Each structure stands twice: as C-alpha cells, then as structure tokens.
Amino acid sequence: MPDVTPTVVLGTESRGSLLGPLVAVHLGVGFAEVRKRPERASDDDKWWGRRTVPDYLDRHLDLAVRRSVLGAGDRVLFVDDWADTGAQALACQQLVHGADATWLGAVVIVDGLENSADRRALALRGLLHHRDLDRR
Questions:
Q1: Which of 81, 87, 91 is nearest to 130 (CA)?
Q2: Domain count, the chain
Q3: What is the pLDDT of residues 67-124, one digit of tens each?
C-alpha cells in the first residue's frame, strides 16, 4: 500500500497561506506557499508555474511555487479556505505533477464545487458544502 502521509502542505496566498501552515505544523511537515502573480518575487529562486482555467471571477491567474520547496518524491496535501470553480486547486495539482511529486488531495473549509468530476480528480474534501451555508 502506498504511503499517503503528506511530506508537504501546499496553499495559495492569501488564505491558503494562513491555513496551510497550521495544518503543516499539526502534521509535522513543511509548508509551500503558492504565489499568485509570481513576477512579484524578487529572489533568484527557480519556480514551477501554471496558469489557471477561469476562476469564479472569470480570471486566469498565474500561480507558482519555488522549486526548492517542492520536488520529486514529495507527497502533497493542498489546503485552502474555499473551492468554488476549483481553478486554483487544479492548477496547483498540475504544479505538483510538474515537480514529479504526488498529489494526495485537497482539503477546504467550504466545498462550492458544482463539478463532481473535478471533486474526484482533486480528491477534494470539505468541512462544509456551500449549500449548508444557505440555510436560514
């Protein structure tokens, strides 16, 4: 049976960068921040980069993670606050595969995905579904 224990938690700035380190500390593993607009980076690190499909605001975002924090052999758990279209999570999954790492799945607080195929492809789990928030 393959090892399903993460070696790295991945999260996008900004809320994924707040939640992800908490999960990483709890699991005793490292955290890798995925930057939006990586051109803002002022260092000389090499980056893995991907562009998203349209997100909930119909934007294509450029996402990137430092190659020094994500590499072959890593087992990656993605953490974020909300998945609406899944665009960022899907691009992060491509980053992971591009680094020859293993995608274990995605964990979010609110699952707003309407596309169940994306939910399966991401192995996404949420604490709540967005429909749970609409009840009065």
A1: 81
A2: 1
A3: 889 999 999 999 999 998 899 999 999 999 999 999 999 999 999 998 899 999 999 9
Range of the domain at 125: 8-133
Residue 77 lies in a domain: yes
State pTM to two decimals. Answer: 0.89
Q: What is the pLDDT of residues 50-61, one digit of tens each?
A: 888 887 788 888
Cα 40 to Cα 8: distance, rounded to the nearest angstrom: 23
Sign of CA dihedral 50, 51, 57, 58: negative
44, with CB counted inside 10 A (0-12, 13-18, 19+), is: exposed
Among 16, 10, 64, CA closest to 37: 64
| 3 in a structural domain | no
